[in-house]
Design goal:
Helix content: under 10%
Distance between the termini: 66 Å
Largest sheet: 20 strands, parallel
Number of helices: 0
Amino acid sequence: PKQNTIYLRPQSTLLLTKVIVDSTNEKYPPVFANNANVKITASEIRWSKYHDTSALYVNASSYAIVSKSIINGLYIGKQSTCEVQKSQVIYFANIQHGSTLTADALYLDRLFDGDSLTIDDGSQVKTDQIDFPDGQYAALVTHSLFKCGQNNLDDQHQLTIQMDEQSTVDVQNAAVNIIRPTQTSPDPTPTQK
């Protein structure tokens, strides 16, 4: 078994209500769901000493509901689904490999200077409302969908989204830049002598 605080084996279920889960283990995130179901309500998932990775991993076709909670870094991968209800994600969110994040109200706080939100490889993020802290932040969307209803983006709350041509982005008041594939020179053709 992994050395996570909570490791969910395939087909298992975890219900957390009014709980704080924290870890100082530098190698494994506090909560790791592997093809499992998770419901977190009015709780906090922390990784106090490590801010460069996710405290909550929802992985390998897992399903999670996070309601009225605080998560220190969120990873959703390998065709997993996470529903966020009036919750806060600190540092960053990473949605990959055909996964889905839906939210009625998602509050982002203390975000990294780099890509605070990464949506990649056929994933989808759909939010009714998303709020960013004061400052300038970045998102990367590749081969994916990012759709947001309301947000608080303005002169004090700025978001720049880098997206490729295979992505769809609908986020009002965000600066959106298209990433074009780098052009490579054709191989030189041999000349006759």
